[in-house]
Amino acid sequence: MKRILLRVAYDGTDFHGWQFQPGVRTVEGELNNAITLLTGKETEVTGASRTDAGVHAMGNVAVFDTEATVPPERFAQALNTYLPEDVKVRSSEEVPADFHPRKVRCRKVYEYRIYCDRMPDPLRRRECWQVPVKMDVDKMRKAASYLVGTNDFAGFCSVHTQAESTVRTIYSIDITEGAPADGGQQIAIRICGNGFLYNMVRIIAGTLAEVGSGKHEPEWVLEALKSADRTKSGPTAPPQGLTLCEISYFPETEAVYPWV
Question: Which residues are catalytic?
Answer without folding.
Answer: 52
